[in-house]
């Protein structure tokens, strides 16, 4: 309990959190990823090895869905300004995409998920309780909405897509 409270206080500073990720965890992305597999399934073990090797070279967190993170990072780095607002819909503390975006210098990062009981700050990342089919955010708040390994778990797709789409 005390460690969680300590982390919630100390990691609010983006400088402390970045130091922790760089010095303690060893995460230091040196260049943008190159992910040619946007909106695709990896076809073989070689593509998986290639994604894991790229993440390792980039000093990004390695995890089971690293190819998805690389594809999202590749797209966001090429299309969304670092001052843009990004939402990770269905986020969790185990999700690494917001951490990676933070390491690349993004400032306006929000993760919502049902697991959060209280607002948590990690550098420029805010995690909070939220239902992805009906958020508290006004239309047009976010420049990008990402959602990794969430909607296949019984989410009402019509409500989610209505909530996530850009309204004119």
Written as H for each helix and E for each strand, in order along the chain, the element string is HHHHEHEEEEH
Shape descriptor = globular
Using only C-alpha atoms, the radius of gyration works out to 16 Å
Distance between the termini: 45 Å
Question: Which structural class matches the secondary elements?
Answer: alpha/beta
What about the largest sheet?
5 strands, mixed
The helix count comes to 6
Percent helix range: 25-40%
For the biggest β-sheet, the strand order reads 3-4-2-1-5
Q: What percent of residues are in strands?
A: 5-15%
Q: Would you identify the regions where 5 or more consecutive residues have pLDDT less than 50?
A: none
What is the topological layout?
Blueprint: H1 2-10, H2 14-24, H3 45-57, H4 66-79, E1 85-89, H5 97-103, E2 108-113, E3 120-122, E4 125-129, E5 144-146, H6 157-164
Parallel strand pairs: 1-2, 1-5, 2-4
Antiparallel strand pairs: 3-4
